[in-house]
Each structure stands twice: as C-alpha cells, then as structure tokens.
Amino acid sequence: MNRIYLTILLLFPMLSLAQSPEAVDTVKLINNPEKVTVSRSGDTTLIEVETPVSYGKNLFSYEVTVAEPSESDPLVDFEIPFGIGRKKEQGSAHRRLQTSVFALGHLYVGQRFNYSDKGAVKNHMEAGVRDVLGIRWSHGPYTPSFSIGVGFGVQNYGAQDGFIYVKDGSRLTMVAAGDGCKVKSSMMSVVNFQIPLLLTLPIGRDVTFAAGAVGCFNTYAQARTELDFGSHKTTTLYKGLQQRLFTAELTATLGICDIIGVYASWSPMTLFQSPYGPQLRSWSIGGTINF
Fold first, then answer.
1. Which pTM value belongs to this model?
2. Distance CA 109, CA 125 (A)
3. Which residues are 284's β-sheet partners?
C-alpha cells in the first residue's frame, strides 16, 4: 500500500477516575508514519510520531496523565469506633464491593417465651452479643449488605413457683418441691456460641432492617436449685446435661442510626432431644445496642 495509516485512540476518561465525568474520545489520523515512540514516566504517558515532510520531519506528540485510584476508596475498610455510624459519602451506591470489619455489634437483652412442652418452665431473660467480631460486605453506605459474625449468649429457663429441676439419670425433669421447704430459686442456664448470618437493608438514611439465621453451639448447660428448710439451706447443681449441641434460630432486627434497635427471634428446634429434657421451643423479643 502506498499509504500507511496510524490511528491513535485514547480513551483517557475511562482510565482516570479524576477526569471529566463525560466520556470524550480523542482520535488522531496520521498519514505515512515513520517512527512511533511510546514512553511513560510515573502516571504520565507520552506518544510521539515522526512523519517525513519536504523540509525534514514533522513530530506529533500527545501526553496524558492517568490518576491512580484514591486511597480513600479501599477494598478493606475498618470501622472505628466499633460499629457506630456509617460513613456519609455521596454516590457510594455505585462503588465496588467493600469489605469492612466491625466489632461489638448487636448487644441484646430480651425476654424468652417458651411454648410446646414447657411444663413448669416459666419465661425468663436472655442476653448476649451477636457479633463480638464480624465481617460485612456492601457497596457503600445506604446500600444492602451481608454480614457474618461470631458471638455468644446466655439463655435462662426458670422454674415456676413451687417447682424445681431434678436430674434423673441422664434426664432433666421438673418436680414439685416437698413440704417444709421454700424454693429460693431453680434455674437452668445454657451458654452458646453464635454464628449470625444477616442481610441488612437500609430504610432511608437512619433506619435499617436486618434478617437472617443464627447458628447456636450450645457448649454448656447447668441447672441450679436453692432450697430453704428454715434450719438450713441447700444448693444443688446439675451439670452434664444432654442439651442439643447445635440449634438454629431465625431473627430480625429493626435498628435506628445503627446504634439502638429492637429484635425478635424464633427457635424452631427443641433444646433437648427426647427423653433427655423438656421438649420446649421458644421465641424472644428485646432490645439491641451497638458500641
């Protein structure tokens, strides 16, 4: 061919986040190029093209600077202080997926309501921290997010007035206290480690709704009874209960300003397998706070 065409297509707005928000293409058509040189120094790229002319050589040059992504848009973001507030950034809904690490989220205190085969078990309180440490994935503030964490909690199951917990072999049962004694307290407590999986949806700028499942590893359980016979007092402690080692709960939380909120949980699984204890199920409601 008598003529050689060199087309330089520079789409610099696509490469730089700091340039004009409108995409503008720069196209230069050069006939009969003799020499093309591309050099780079730091963020600046220089393109030089030499073409022969009657009086010597003509030099065309083009220089463009490509800015690197800002350090203010990291892939991993640590929230300090722990779990409080969200960053007020504009246009964050279109940002890339971010990973944030948070701690001490969803401290909860509530009332547990027992049903099914609860017998003489009365409703009592529960408390814990859903997320001692957690990881959250989102595209920025005010966008849906998914989180997984590690926490712990304590569930208490009190005995109704006049009843006490008694262990018969491997089975935990409840019987009426005998005449001549006063029941000061009779309580079963279960300690568990939790792994919450939560999907959080923003409702406006200050309200969030979170729902998901919580896996509970019931690592320790005991029943403690204190009796007063007038002339003397006795305390009986039963350990080694045959509680289920794993139970699951469904939970939902409505939070305000990512600081306080209310929650509800439901456990469809029984705490004990038959015949090792009461076949009770439970649900709970209460309040939450984030540090």
1. 0.64
2. 7
3. 112, 265
